[in-house]
Write a structure and sequence with these properties.
Layout lengths: L6 H23 L2 H14 L6 H10 L7 H10 L6 E7 L6 E6 L3 E2 L6 E5 L6 H4 L4 E7 L2 E16 L2 E7 L7 H7 L16 H8 L6 E5 L5 H15 L9 E4 L3 H8 L2 H4 L5 E3 L1 H9 L4 E3 L1 H11 L5 H10 L3 H14 L7 E3 L2 E4 L1 H11 L5 H41 L3 H34 L7 H10 L1 H8 L5 H16 L2 E3 L2 H13 L9 E4 L7 H11 L4 E5 L15 H6 L5 E5 L1 E2 L4 H11 L10 E2 L8 E4 L5 H14 L5 E5 L2 H11 L7 E3 L11 E5 H4 L4 E7 L9 H11 L2 E9 L17
Parallel strand pairs: 2-4, 8-16, 8-17, 9-10, 9-15, 11-14, 15-16, 18-19, 20-25, 21-23, 21-24, 22-23, 24-25
Antiparallel strand pairs: 1-2, 1-6, 3-4, 5-6, 6-7, 12-13
Bound molecules: adenosine-5'-triphosphate.
GO cellular component, one term: cytosol
InterPro entries: DExx_box_DNA_helicase_dom_sf, DNA_helicase_UvrD/REP, HelD_bacillota, P-loop_NTPase, UvrD-like_ATP-bd, UvrD-like_helicase_C
GO molecular function: 3'-5' DNA helicase activity; ATP binding; DNA binding; hydrolase activity
């Protein structure tokens, strides 16, 4: 690097950038006098010549910047690595080529508006990610700018010191990517802004106003890219969207913790990240116990009862056809709001019943039913108040006229007195009656409207046989009907619902009661999206009333296939108007040797998902170790120690089910007394421990070395087991081992022998 002709220039640039950052940081912290003095010192310390004047100027401007605390904090962090790339770009309209340095956030010279660092999310930075050298164009503010890139350079900067830099051209492979992939996993998502690849960049920057569905192979960067898209979204639409309006849905809390590590870096930590189960609980405030899809999966795996009615019912409740059942139910419930009686006070009609019904059906049709009810109450209250005044005036006038008549028309004093007293009393009584009636009439009328809560609505759908039959019959067969009702009613006796009922709750909540504005996300990101049922998508779409979904998943990893999405087409055809659909085929996590084995399983799956293409990185072939051999545990310990010595950091023992994991833990704990952790759903991973976890919890995670273990539960040659195995096999970065009784425990008998040892 030191012999490179640009070495000095690069060194100077880094020194200047750091000095500039220091000035900006100091400007926020220090008083102006001290600042001037400090700047003077910094300028004197900079000994590069040509551009020093320009730099001095820039430094002098740095104190005008006003920054938020957060920006300042970011700047401090970034000082260690201000930028990671540079482009030399000649825009057609400009007289000469310009140099741009690209980093995680932008920094501008206040006076000239020239970028000192260009944000990776800015339109111009797209040029770095897309294509290679030569003619390129980029879009900003609806305009296309043509130009030419003559240089793309990557930097490796550590603790503020330039370690290395190299140029990318058509022939050189992406060294930085290779280097980054060869590192160890430390239970967190890596920083990848500097190595985002072209196909990934397309996902990040795809039209932000449209929903996007991404089918991506295991390890293709779906999670990472989805989060970068969030960051890009917030940057590009910062004036319109706030991070709080963003909802990120992940499969479990463990995964959320894992994601959160990367969120602050991307500036999206204020987004709400949660699971679908927790989100529905928050929004609907239901108090049922939820039997999760994970529990169901475990039951299936541990009891082998795959034709369980529970699975069939879950599949029915998640299916697209269930929406018509719910719509029919909602329609039935709607009829109860058609209250058509007039409102009268003192015998006068004050509101026409037809008008009240019309308010519900037409005027407030855009509102949820109970919000309409509330509006109607408001309108009726004000109508009654207004009309009451008129009635009182009319009545008063009527009695006053009669009084006049009595006073001036009745000659007999006694008669007159009686008549006047009578009229005065009558007037008083009538007016009081009107006042009294007016006070109560609206409340009394509103009682004619239904008044149930969400739980009651949910129960009623199943408990009221006539309604149930009416709404379900057109869609389901008799036996399906019976199973659905029987299963749900049994659940309800135990105050329990299935995870698949949550979509019903959210759907009903949205239509009947509406969603509190605090929970109304405008943009939704769904990871591991293949595991959501169609109705879960429908319920979110309906509840949040937005099309802005980023949906990433992999059908080959659909281990909840009894309820999950059968294809992405369903979303494309039935849920969104014209979503973008993109695929990510290259896989970055694991080595060619491991992927070669995992890819074999895809041949046997019913979904036609393309095979993952590993980025060129070789490693050891996966190895099978027999548990029949005496002393295999001691060998395992030795293997572990040797890998540790080699610098391998994270290890996982993965079992098919929770039960299997308990066996793994119990058996191996004596061999790793202080270094093994059996992971539960609510627990955090302890650093430096070997993690024992079931496949469903390993989703989305990665480890340097993964050992699949089968004490009791082997994998069978059918769809679910192949998917489970595929998920497990694609977790390691570097090493994959199988520990079992025979090769067939891991379906290795269906995989060419040459691919493993
Ligand atoms: N462009 C990239 N540069 C460097 N590393 C990358 C890049 N893209 C992805 N990776 C790395 O590849 C690994 C897999 O990424 P990620 O977990 O986002 O993939 P995924 O598609 O969600 O995987 P899975 O579906 O198997 O859970 C991570 O370690 C990530 O940092």
């Amino acid at each position: 690097m030191k012999n490179h002709p640009d070495y000095q220039e690069e060194l100077d640039r880094l020194t200047f950038t750091k000095a500039y950052m220091d000035s900006v940081i100091a400007a926020q912290e220090t008083d102006q006098e001290t600042l001037k003095q400090r700047q003077q010192e910094t300028v004197e310390a900079l000994d590069f010549k040509d551009s020093s004047l320009k730099y001095q100027d820039m430094l002098a401007h740095s104190n005008f910047m006003k920054m938020s605390k957060e920006q300042l904090e970011n700047l401090r962090k970034l000082r260690k690595k201000p930028y990671f790339a540079r482009i030399n770009y000649h825009r057609k309209e400009k007289p000469e080529e310009e140099i741009f340095y690209i980093g995680k956030v932008s920094l501008f010279d206040r006076e000239t508006q020239q970028p000192i660092i260009l944000d990776w999310r800015s339109p111009l930075a797209n040029v770095y990610y897309e294509g290679r050298l030569g003619d390129v164009s980029y879009e900003a503010h609806g305009e296309t700018y043509e130009g030419n890139v003559s240089l793309k350079r990557q930097y490796s900067i550590e603790e503020g010191e330039l370690q290395d830099f190299r140029d990318i051209d058509i022939t050189t492979k992406d060294d930085l990517l290779q280097e980054s992939l060869s590192q160890n996993a430390d239970h967190r998502l890596n920083e990848i802004v500097s190595t985002i690849q072209e196909e990934q960049n397309r996902v990040i920057r795809a039209d932000l106003r449209k929903p996007i569905i991404v089918q991506g192979a295991a390890g293709s960067g779906k999670t990472t890219i989805a989060l970068h898209r969030v960051s890009y979204f917030l940057y590009t639409l910062k004036d319109i969207f706030h991070p709080e309006e963003m909802l990120i849905l992940a499969p479990n809390r463990l995964f959320i913790d894992y994601m959160k590590e990367v969120l602050p870096e991307l500036g999206v930590d204020k987004a709400r990240s949660t699971t679908y189960i927790d989100f529905v609980k928050l929004v609907t405030k239901h108090s049922f116990h939820v039997r999760t899809q994970h529990e169901t999966l475990m039951n299936v795996l541990e009891s082998g009862a795959e034709d369980d009615a529970r699975l069939e019912v879950a599949s029915l409740k998640g299916d697209a056809s269930f929406q018509s059942i719910l719509d029919r139910y909602v329609n039935e419930m709607k009829k109860e709001f058609f209250v058509e009686e007039d409102i009268t006070i003192g015998g006068f009609r004050v509101v026409n019943g037809k008008k009240i019904k019309r308010m519900f059906i037409e005027d407030y049709a855009y509102l949820p039913f109970y919000k309409r009810k509330k509006k109607i109450r408001q309108v009726l209250t004000s109508d009654v108040r207004r009309k009451k005044k008129v009635i009182i005036e009319k009545l008063s006038k009527k009695y006053d006229d009669e009084l006049d008549k009595a006073l001036y028309g009745i000659k007999d004093a006694d008669k007159r007195k009686r008549r006047v007293t009578f009229l005065l009393d009558k007037k008083e009584e009538k007016l009081q009656e009107v006042e009294k009636e007016a006070k109560k009439v609206v409340s009394a009328h509103m009682k004619k409207f239904p008044n149930y809560n969400l739980t009651q609505y949910f129960k009623r759908m199943y408990q009221d046989e006539a309604i149930f039959e009416k709404v379900v019959n057109p869609t389901l067969s008799k036996p399906q009907n019976q199973k659905l009702r029987h299963h749900t009613m049994t659940n309800l006796k135990h105050k329990t619902i299935d995870a698949e009922d949550l979509a019903t709750l959210l759907y009903l909540q949205a239509i009947l009661f509406g969603i509190e504005s605090d929970f109304k996300a405008k943009k939704v990101v769904m990871d591991e999206a293949q595991d959501y049922s169609f109705m879960e998508f429908v319920s979110l779409r309906r509840a949040l009333n937005t099309e802005l979904f980023t949906i990433v998943g992999d059908l080959a990893q659909g281990i909840y296939q009894y309820r999950g999405l059968p294809s992405w087409q369903l979303l494309q055809n039935k849920l969104f108007t014209s979503p973008n659909y993109l695929t990510l085929q290259k896989t970055y996590r694991t080595t060619i040797e491991i992927m070669n084995v995992a890819n074999e399983l895809l041949n046997y799956m019913t979904e036609s998902v393309p095979k993952a293409e590993p980025v060129v990185r070789h490693g050891d072939k996966p190895v099978f170790y027999s548990m029949e051999q005496k002393g295999w545990e001691t060998e395992l310990v030795e293997r572990y120690k040797s890998l540790k010595r080699k610098g391998v950091k994270t290890f996982a023992f993965i079992g098919k089910s929770k039960q299997e994991c308990q066996l793994i833990y119990d058996h191996l704990q004596p061999f790793f007394p202080d270094t093994i952790q059996l992971l539960g759903e609510e627990e955090e991973m302890v650093t430096d421990k070997i993690i024992v976890l079931p496949i469903y919890l390993s989703k989305g995670l990665e480890f340097d070395c993964v050992s699949l273990m089968s004490f009791q539960e082997g994998y069978h040659f059918h769809e679910l087991d192949m998917k489970l195995l595929y998920v497990a096999m694609t977790r390691p970065l570097h090493y994959l081992y199988f520990y079992g009784k025979q090769y067939s425990d891991f379906l290795l008998d269906h995989i060419p022998e040459a691919k493993y040892l």
